Amino acid sequence: MAFQGSRQVARVAVNMALSEDREHEKGLKVQYAREGFKTAAVDYGGDFVASVNKITERAVVAAKREGVIKEVHAEEGAVAGATREALSQVMMKAIGLNVGGKIGIARYNDHISVAVFFGVGLLHLDDVAIGLGHRAVSS
Is residue 128 included in any domain, yes or no? Predict the structure, then answer.
């Protein structure tokens, strides 16, 4: 297998966040597992400001549940930090509005990426936003 670095892990996280439904998500998980990636995805929604902590918690819980990370402080912190970084990239577009979408998480060895994709709602004038964070942990 060729080296999988931060760019490849970021691509996988974005693809997980963009998966259309649970079946598509499961298919991607299987495909990426064959390539050596550990992945997870989880839906979320609500008021952006009120949801920031919940989104971060959901990312960490999903990563642990799917075996992307172990239940150790450094790995949990890496996912939380990458999630917060991804959220900060879309904050100006989403602040004060409702959001709904998906978090995609990917890991290959010591590279972890978290992508957040969501629709930003204001009446029927929806917009979309995507943010991406990366952290490195010892594997």
Answer: yes
